[in-house]
Amino acid sequence: MPDPAWNRPGGLLFPGLCLACGEGAGEGEDRLCSECRPAFRLPSRGLCQHCLARNDTATEICLDCLSQAPAWTQASCLWPFHGAAREVVHRYKYQGDEKARRVVLEHLPLALAGVAIPRPAAVCAVPMHWLKRHWRGHCAASQLARDAARLLAVPQLHLLRRRRFGKPQHELDRDHRRKAVLGLYELAPRAQIPSGTILLVDDVLTTGATLDTCARLLLEGGAGEVRVLTLARG
User: Fold this and answer.
1) Are 219 and 226 in contact (CB under 8 A)?
2) Whole-angstrom Cα distance, residue 20 to residue 35?
3) Are 10 and 88 within one domain?
4) pTM score > 0.85 for this model?
5) SS3 at position 27
6) Which domain holds residue 65?
7) Which of 30, 105, 132, 218 is deepest in the core (most CB within 10 A)?
8) Residue 68 and residue 32 in one domain
9) Handedness of CA 126, 206, 30, 103 (dihedral sign)
10) Are residues 26 and 68 in the same domain?
11) Chain centroid, CA 206 distance in Å
12) Do residues 201 and 179 both lie within one domain?
C-alpha cells in the first residue's frame, strides 16, 4: 500500500483524501474512499459468536471454542485485520496517529453495540509494560479503552499489570504465544475488581492467549463476567 498522502511532501494540502490510503477521495464521517471502505467491514455471517474466528461449522460456535472456550463470554471488534484496515490499525497502534484515531472513533460505537449491552461496570485495557510504553510514547489498548469508557459513561480502571518485558506476540506462533503469557500478567496492587461485567480491551485479537489470561485474572479477582473489545480480529 502506498504511503498515505499526509506522509508525503504537500500531502496536507489535500484534506479530502482517504484517511486509510491517502489516494482516493475520502467520503462520509470516517473519510474513507470507496476502494478502502470494504476492508473495514466484518463478514455478516460465518464468524464464531464467541471468539470471532472464521467458523465453517453448522453451529454458531467454532470447534476451538466448543472444545476449550476462552474465559470471556462475548467479543466484538471494529474490523478484520487485513488491507486498508490493517494499515490504519498499525498507524493507530505504533504511531498514535490522530487521523487513524478519527477512523476508530467513527466505527467504535457500532463495535460497542455488539458487546456493551447491558452496559459493563468498567472498562480495562490489557496493560503494556511500562518500559515499552515509555519507548513508544503511547498505548493503543489504553487509548481505545479510554474512548470506549467515555462513550459508555463508565470508568476506565487499571486493574492489571504486566510483570515483565517479553518478546512481541506477533513474532510467535500459536503454541508459543500461549506459553509466553504464562505468568506475564497479574492483578494490579490494591486493584478493586467490580463484581459486575468488565469490558477488557486490546488492540488485535489473534490467538486470544493474552485476552484469555487477563480475563481469567479478572474473574479470579471477583469480576462477574468479562467481555472483549479489540480494534481488529487477526
Assistant:
1) yes
2) 10
3) no
4) yes
5) strand
6) 51-233
7) 218
8) no
9) positive
10) no
11) 10
12) yes
Helices and strands (DSSP H and E) totals, the chain:
7, 6
32 and 133 share one domain: no
Tell me what pLDDT residue 170 has: 52
- Backbone φ and ψ for 216, nearest 5 degrees, come out as -65, -40
200 by Cβ neighbours in 10 Å (0-12 / 13-18 / 19+) ranks as: buried
- Specify the 3-state DSSP secondary structure of 25: strand
How far apart (Å, rounded) are the C-alpha atoms in residues 234 and 226? Answer: 20
Residue type, 205: L
Per this entry, what is the length of the chain?
234
Cell of 210: 493474552
Q: Are residues 91 and 186 in the same domain?
A: yes
| Residue 44: how many other CB atoms lie within 10 Å | 6
Task: Read off the DSSP letter of residue 128.
Answer: P
The answer to whether residues 69 and 161 belong to one domain is yes
What confidence category does residue 179 fall into, taking pLDDT thresholds of 50, 70 and 90? low
Helix (H) or strand (E) holding 203: strand 197-205
Residue 81 resides in a domain: yes
3-state DSSP assignment of residue 97: coil
Which stretches does DSSP call E strand in 10-144?
A: 74-80, 122-125
Our count of domains for the chain comes to 2
All three cell numbers of 84: 486498508
